[in-house]
Structure formats: structure tokens, C-alpha cells
Specification:
The complex is a heterodimer of chains A (375) and B (304). Chain A has helices at 5-17, 20-40, 59-70, 83-91, 105-110, 126-155, 178-208, 211-216, 222-250, 260-284, 288-304, 317-324, 327-341, 349-374; strands at residues 48-54, 74-79, 97-101, 118-121. Chain A is built from 14 helices and 4 strands. In chain A, strands 2-1-3-4 form a 4-stranded mixed sheet, sandwiched between helices. In chain B, 40% of the residues are buried. Classes of the chains: A mainly alpha (375), B alpha/beta (304).
């Protein structure tokens, strides 16, 4: 059944080694992508450039500005001298936030009247806008409460603390670092894309160059040919996986809470499935151009529907089903599970079984399509 | 679409069978069927005694195939290509070494063994392809236009190789567009519009009544200004057909007319120095005549 595996495998290894540029790119590109996107896709909001137009000379306004800066979310980079200047700072994109403190701010506070502070938020970046909005209201609330408490304190010395204290605690990713969440997901996406492309081209290339026909008059078996093509690229995929996991651990400082060995073993399973998808594409496409276009059909859902960018639960059911058919979706669960939650094999059993079934089905389907087409 | 239609023929062991026909007539399709690359919609064939449908594996072990375009791995060396095919055919150990040496000796490609296939010239590429197709010692080898696009010297050398192979008992099934190659085949088949029109020894084909009807004879005319002469002769009522053949004109004329009638016809348009001789039809005459004949007949009936 696997006749020809050894010879195809050996031939493929020679051919890969004859093309060092491609091999180098294959190994380097995942790491570069991880570094680029890992840094770029950062949903944590910090040090947002802020401009201030302060009309109040009193110390109370300076306290408020310190409170803003102490959150680490805002960084005051410029002071405006007029409403127009403040407005322009935002329109021109130099700052995202503008804070205007009215001239009677201190006065009103001292006389126990309500003081209003205007905060302008640039809404063009939604993640910054929503987070800023939250933080700004929080700062306002905290300020009010502390003022309130000092007022209360002066009347009744027993109340020395704020009436309500909320101390949030987040599970799994206590610092709410987006890297911990994004990077493992990114690894799933990158590996899916690279490996699918690797094999998608492998058989098409032989078809384009006419070598496939010559190969098919020999007694080589479809499975032998398929595996002989798949295994060398699988080995490259393993090296790639190890690289990106190392980058994740050392560069992005993402701790692996679960078992590293389990992660490696399941990565292998994922690679096998992703490569098998490439093979299936390869049996369908007549040219490398077509293979690339078909590969996009896998690559786009693995970015958009896998749960990498948007939560799958909030997608319409059709999109959930499409996402289910992409191996990256299941590997996303696996890698996030192991890295973030310390999940064990038992926890991940549904995903593992899905990937195994998918991989076998894909390989059989490819071999079958291949045989049918040429027999 | 019927690419190969109701075609039956048998080829002897150890002969070179030439297969001719215009582009798109179905030559390559037939070879691909016999090699098991495509499945015929109906009918059966036996290659080296094995059924191409039910005994595909046996067929594959006993045949070699050289396709129209060079189809080996350009980024592998000569040696690696030969090795790869030897391994694919399951050769091992001493047998592997023996066969490898045998094909390299036969094709003389030894000096290039470490050169990448991409860097070989056309003729040497074909030799490499032949080496790979022969490495498992096939009984039959299918060669689809093996000499297309290579220079005349390499072409001749390749044919010498083919004869050498045939003398060892290997059957060669060759498609070609070259008449001189066809003449060298033990037997030739002619395929047109997916149908095998005729096959046999080249000399027998020239004697076919379809080619030379009872009331007609072939003549060869040598004269200056052949294109003008050809146009005039084609108009002559006693001429059935005429074509330019190298420096001369081959024509089929009424057997009752004397050959000198041609000289008279040519004199009328000012060509005085004409030499006319009785001729035997060439293989090209045979195929051109047959093609015209069947294309004419086919116009009414080939639209199914």
C-alpha cells in the first residue's frame, strides 16, 4: 500500500535541500511573522498620548491629572492653550485624548459643588476608545469617592475608607497581557498557513513540470506518494513549531502552564492534519496559482473564524461550522488550553479526536482523489 | 469526445512500431491508455500479455514510458534521477547496481552523472529519460515523440539506440512526425481523427490500392519554380493530386496519360526544363493521400 514511500521521501529531501532559499524562508518566515504580529497585535492599551488644557490654577486640578497619569493608561505629552489647540491636537492625530479642566474646578470642589471635567476621546481606534472611556470614568469615580470620603471624614472620623471597594481578579491571565492570549493563537494560525502552503505546492509542482505523469507509470502507490511528500514537510513543520514556541516563551515571555510534551505531541497531530489539507488542495489544483487561491480558502477562515480574532461563540452558526472544519480552530483550543489554562490530554480530548479524524479523512480523500484522477 | 475510437492492432515482440498521425489525432491518448495513465471508456487491451484494466501493476512493471516533454526532476542530478526511478521500481542491492550500470552504459550518460538534469542539452535529456524508463528492464517501451525538438545528429544517435534496444528483444512503440523515422520502423500505424486508418510494413503501405488507385500512377517532377508549377499541375484535369516533396513535385495522375503530358503542361506556363520520372509513393504520399481521403469521407459522418 505504501510502495514508493521511501524513494519519494528521499527524492523530496534532496529537492528541498537543492533550494536553500525556499528552505530558509520556510524556517524563518514563521518566526518573523510571529515577532511582527506578536508585537503589532497588542490590544493592551497603555501610555495613550494625552493633551491637557488646564484653566484651573489650583492644586486640585494637578491632583486630578496625577490621578490620570497614575493609571498608566494616559501619558500627558502636551499642554494646550485654547479649545482650538486641544481640538486640533486630536484631529491631527498627535494625541488620542484631550482633557479640559474648567477655571472654576478647584473653587467648585472646595465649595462642595459639582465640578465637571471634559475629556475628549479619539473614537477612530475602537479598542483605545472603549478602554479609555472605561478608565476615564473610573478615574472620575475614584476622584469623586475620595473627595466624598474626605468630606465625610471631616464630619465623622470613623469612615476613613471608601464605602465600596472593588478588587477585580482575573483568572489564567492575571495581568491581562494580550501576548499570553494572542501569541499562542497566532502560532496556530501561522503554522496552519505555512504548512498548508508547503504541501499544496508539492504535487502541483510535479504536475506543472510534467514529472507527475512519469511518476504515475511506475508502480508507486498513492499512499506511498502522499506520505513521501508529507513527511519531509512535516519535519520542516516540526522545526518551525519548535522555533515559534521558543520565540513565544523567550521573546514574548508567555509561560506554558501545562505539559510541554503534550503540547509538542499535539502540535505534531495538528501539523499532520494541516499538511493533509495542503495535499487535498494539491490533488485538485492544476497549477501553483490555483493552489494558492485554494489555499486562501483555508487561510482566511483560519484567521477569521478560528477564534483567533473573534470569539467563536458569538458567530452565526454557519460561520461556527465553517470554522469547525479548519484544523487551526481545534489547535487554537489545544494550544491556549495547554499554555494558558494548563489543560491536560483529558480536557482536550474532543479537539484531539476531531483532529485525528480530520487528518485521516483528508489523507484518504487525497489518495482516493489522486487515484481516481489518474487511474 | 472520443479521442481513440475502436482501434485494434497488435505489435510483435522486439519490433519498432511507429505510430503516426496529425497533432490531436489521439496518438498520445492511446499511449497513455496503454500505460494505464487514463482508463478507456470501453474496450480492452493487453500489454505484454497483461490486461491494462485488471492487471495494472503487472503492466507498470513491464513497461517503460518516455513522455513528450522532458519529465524528470530538473533539480536532481542524472545519477539521482536514475536512482530514484530504480528505487521506485523496487530494485535493490546487486540487481540495482547491475541495472544502473547497464542503462548508463547503454545511453553513455556516465560522464554526466553528477550534472543536474536541468543543465543537460535536449539530446542528453532524452538519453537520461530513456535510462530512467529502462532501468527496471521493461519488455515494452512507449516513446511519445522522443525526437521532437532535438538536433538531427542527436536524433540519429537516439534512433541507433532504439535499434540496439530492439535487437535485445525489447518492443518499442514510437510516435513521430518524421517520415524518415517512420521509414525506419518495422511497421507503422496511421491514426487520423481517433481512428486507426491503416497499419503495416512501410513498403506494403505504399502498395495500398487506396494510395495508388488502379487507374492512376505516381510521378516525380523536377523543375525550377516548383510552387508555380505545382499550382498549374493541380489544375490539370489528368492530375489527381500533387504535393511538393523536397526539391521536386510528387503527383498522382491518370495511368493512361503519358508522362510527357506533364512537360507540355509546364511548357504552357513557360517552364521548359522539366524532368519527369515514374515514382513510387513515399510514406508521406501515403499518409497525405489517406488523410485527404478520410477527411473528405469524414465530413458527413464524423460529427457524432
Amino acid at each position: 500500500m505504501f510502495k514508493g514511500f521511501g524513494s519519494v521521501f528521499y527524492k523530496e529531501v534532496i529537492q528541498i535541500s537543492r533550494d536553500p532559499l525556499t528552505l530558509g524562508l520556510m524556517l524563518l518566515v514563521p518566526m518573523l511573522q510571529l515577532l511582527l504580529f506578536g508585537y503589532a497585535i497588542n490590544t493592551d492599551v497603555r501610555n495613550i498620548k494625552t493633551a491637557v488644557y488646564n484653566l484651573d490654577p489650583g492644586p486640585q486640578s494637578r491632583d486630578l491629572l496625577h490621578a490620570f497619569e497614575n493609571t498608566d493608561y494616559f501619558k500627558i505629552v502636551s499642554y494646550a492653550g485654547s479649545d482650538e489647540e486641544l481640538n486640533h491636537a486630536i484631529v491631527s492625530g498627535r494625541v488620542k485624548i484631550g482633557i479640559k479642566i474648567p477655571p472654576d474646578y478647584s473653587d467648585r470642589l472646595l465649595t462642595n459643588r459639582q465640578a465637571t471635567v471634559l475629556v475628549l476621546i479619539d473614537g477612530s481606534d475602537s479598542s483605545i476608545a472603549t478602554q479609555s472611556l472605561q478608565v476615564v470614568s473610573q478615574v472620575g469615580l475614584t476622584e469623586s469617592l475620595s473627595r466624598l470620603s474626605s468630606i465625610l471624614q471631616s464630619r465623622d472620623s470613623r469612615t476613613s475608607q471608601l464605602p465600596v471597594e472593588i478588587r477585580p481578579k482575573m483568572l489564567f491571565n492575571p495581568d491581562s497581557r494580550s501576548a499570553n492570549f494572542m501569541v499562542p493563537g497566532l502560532i496556530a494560525v501561522i503554522l496552519q498557513i505555512i504548512t498548508t502552503l508547503l504541501t499544496a505546492f508539492s504535487i502541483v509542482r510535479e504536475r506543472e513540470r510534467g514529472t507527475l505523469e512519469q511518476l504515475l507509470v511506475t508502480p508507486v502507490r498513492p499512499f506511498g506518494l502522499m506520505l513521501g511528500k508529507l513527511v519531509p514537510y512535516g519535519l520542516i513543520g516540526i522545526v518551525e513549531t519548535l522555533t515559534v514556541l521558543t520565540v513565544m516563551r523567550l521573546v514574548f515571555d508567555v509561560p506554558i502552564n501545562g505539559s510541554l510534551w503534550l503540547l509538542l505531541a499535539l502540535s505534531l497531530l495538528f501539523l499532520f492534519t494541516a499538511l493533509a489539507i495542503g495535499l487535498l488542495i494539491s490533488t485538485k489544483a492544476q497549477s501553483q496559482m490555483q493552489a494558492l487561491q485554494l489555499a486562501w480558502l483555508i487561510m482566511l477562515p483560519s484567521v477569521l473564524l478560528s477564534g483567533f480574532m473573534f470569539p467563536r461563540d458569538s458567530m452565526p452558526i454557519v460561520m461556527q461550522v465553517v470554522g469547525y472544519l479548519v484544523p487551526a480552530t481545534h489547535f487554537m483550543e489545544i494550544i491556549r488550553g495547554i499554555v494558558l489554562r494548563g489543560a491536560t490530554l483529558v480536557d482536550l480530548l474532543p479537539e484531539v479526536i476531531t483532529l485525528v479524524v480530520m487528518g485521516i479523512l483528508l489523507l484518504v480523500l487525497s489518495a482516493f482523489r489522486f487515484r481516481k484522477k489518474l487511474a | 469526445m472520443t479521442a481513440v475510437d475502436n482501434l485494434s492492432l497488435s505489435v510483435e515482440n522486439g519490433e519498432i512500431f511507429g505510430f503516426l498521425g496529425p497533432n490531436g489525432s489521439g496518438k498520445s491518448t492511446l499511449i497513455r491508455m496503454l500505460c494505464g495513465l487514463i482508463t478507456p471508456s470501453a474496450g480492452h487491451a493487453r500489454v505484454a500479455g497483461f490486461d491494462i484494466l485488471s492487471e495494472t501493476d503487472e503492466v507498470r512493471q513491464t513497461i517503460g514510458y518516455m513522455s513528450q516533454q522532458f519529465s524528470l526532476y530538473q533539480d536532481l542530478t542524472v545519477w539521482e534521477n536514475v536512482n530514484f526511478y530504480a528505487h521506485v521500481y523496487g530494485l535493490k542491492g546487486a540487481r540495482l547496481e547491475e541495472r544502473r550500470n547497464a542503462v548508463i552504459d547503454l545511453t553513455h550518460i556516465g560522464p554526466f552523472r553528477d550534472r543536474r538534469a536541468a543543465a543537460l542539452s535536449g539530446g542528453w535529456k532524452q538519453r537520461l529519460a530513456l535510462s530512467c524508463a529502462l532501468v527496471h528492464e521493461p519488455k515494452i517501451i512507449f516513446l511519445d515523440e522522443p525526437t521532437a525538438g532535438i538536433d538531427p545528429v542527436a536524433r540519429r544517435e537516439l534512433w541507433d539506440l532504439f535499434f540496439q534496444l530492439a535487437s535485445t528483444g525489447i518492443t518499442l512503440f514510437v510516435t513521430t512526425h518524421y517520415m524518415d523515422e517512420a521509414e525506419r520502423c518495422a511497421r507503422v500505424g496511421y491514426i487520423f481523427n481517433s481512428k486507426l486508418i491503416t497499419y503495416g510494413e512501410p513498403d506494403d503501405l505504399k502498395k495500398l490500392p487506396d494510395v495508388t488507385p488502379a487507374d492512376a500512377k505516381w510521378a516525380e517532377v523536377t523543375c525550377p519554380n516548383t510552387t508555380v508549377a505545382l499550382a498549374e499541375l493541380k489544375r490539370a484535369p489528368y492530375v489527381h493530386d500533387a504535393t511538393i516533396f523536397g526539391q521536386s513535385i510528387h503527383l498522382l495522375m491518370d495511368s493512361g496519360e503519358p508522362l510527357d503530358r506533364i512537360k507540355l503542361t509546364l511548357k504552357q506556363i513557360g517552364i521548359t526544363e522539366a524532368e519527369v520520372q515514374p515514382a513510387r509513393p513515399s510514406l508521406e504520399d501515403v499518409f497525405v493521400t489517406l488523410t485527404k481521403r478520410y477527411a473528405g469521407n469524414g465530413r458527413g459522418g464524423s460529427s457524432r
